[in-house]
Specification:
149 residues, 74% helix
Length: 149
């Protein structure tokens, strides 16, 4: 594969690192006091309550609503872990699959909000592209440690 400036593998590493920075920005921009105080889950509960698909409302009420504090921490620290994993290239395939799944959950929850759909679709697409391009073969701890050969 011919490309300008970098090899194909290096461009896919750039894509992976950029996605990781996007996840880190998702973590950074959260008002942690408000988020961990329940604000993020209250907001999501309002979205789920009005959702057009009853299964989403039931799923939210079953999984998230009974444990709002725990779920706030799970979401926030998942974003941080995904960002760090993708930027450093550590456990990259795991981070790419987990990130794609998290984006799909967000996408389904926010199905009526076009702005959120665009961001989550793009992040899921980048995750799949980076996964199938084996983006951890360059500039990654996985490659340095010989993981996922």
């Amino acid at each position: 594969m011919r490309s300008a400036l970098l090899s194909g593998a290096e461009w896919f590493a750039v894509l992976r690192i950029g996605l990781g920075l996007w996840w880190l920005e998702s973590w950074r921009h959260k008002d942690k006091k408000q988020w961990f105080g329940g604000g993020g889950i209250r907001w999501a509960a309002g979205v789920a309550e009005k959702h057009r698909w009853p299964a989403v409302r039931r799923g939210f009420d079953t999984v998230v609503a009974p444990r709002p504090r725990l779920m706030a921490y799970v979401v926030a620290y998942a974003e941080l872990a995904l960002g760090l994993g993708l930027v450093s290239g550590f456990l990259t395939p795991v981070a790419l699959v987990a990130g794609c799944l998290l984006n799909l959950v967000y996408l389904i929850l926010m199905i009526h909000d076009w702005a959120e759909q665009g961001q989550n679709l793009m992040m899921a697409l980048i995750s799949l592209t980076a996964l199938f391009a084996i983006s951890w073969q360059t500039w990654s701890l996985d490659n340095t440690l010989g993981l996922f050969g």
